[in-house]
């Protein structure tokens, strides 16, 4: 085992904007479990947490380490190179480029030939470009996007664009994948498809996922571990069963709807379908 195998450790993380504590002394460690979630009401600090992990936001105080290595002071592209990939709450795609072109952008840190060689299109650059397109083709296939490879992103429905953004994160071959509201704006069929895709990907790759998502059916079906934020503070961290029965979480966010009597028994259609997929893969 490596000296520090913890995939992500957040310690005393604090971010202050003027008088507002977007994050207030938040600490947690993700380790063995593969899919984790951060939940909480609007303004709880979820996006700020993602911004700190990806180097977009410098914390006022505290540390973030991945695999034992501090991420503080690193630029977003340096953090991406360490295997941390992210999707955004609001799509960050190039609408006038094709699906393939958008997803290829995710491969840039895996290319060896530089920009100049690429522009001059020497044989090495051409070979590398072919390899990258093949790699991207495989992920597009996995994501069900292969038939749309040469379509411009702006012509696609919102749910499909969310998938394109996920594909762009997956081609980075990340060890930590941060998904910021990946299911927002999707219908229940699209959510079930995307949940299955995430589960399959996690089963087939050495990757940990941390997601922010408001749909509790999705969270309860996918996450093995949940961190709950409220007004910038961590109010709970545990399994779905623990979190949904936590009085603080019920009061701040969930209400009584997700309370359960039977640990880890999914009550919802999507949770059942994703759990079945997971069991089938075991
Ligand atoms: N750049 C900023 N400047 C000032 N305040 C900010 C900034 N970014 C976030 N905040 C504030 O910090 C708090 C946490 O915001 P954040 O976006 O992290 O919450 P969130 O949990 O992601 O919310 P949502 O679920 O609505 O996306 C909020 O009060 C927000 O208004």
Automatic annotation (TrEMBL):
Pfam families associated with the record: ABC_tran, BCA_ABC_TP_C
Residue span of region Disordered: 260-282
Compositionally biased spans, kind Polar residues: 271-282
CDD domains: ABC_Mj1267_LivG_branched
GO molecular function, one term: ATP binding
Alphabetically ordered keywords of this record: ATP-binding, Nucleotide-binding, Transport
InterPro entries referenced in this protein's UniProt entry, alphabetically: AAA+_ATPase, ABC_AA/LPS_Transport, ABC_transporter-like_ATP-bd, BCA_ABC_TP_C, P-loop_NTPase
Domain of life: Bacteria
Domain called ABC transporter: residue spans: 8-256
Membrane spanning stretches: none
Name of the molecule in the record: ABC transporter ATP-binding protein
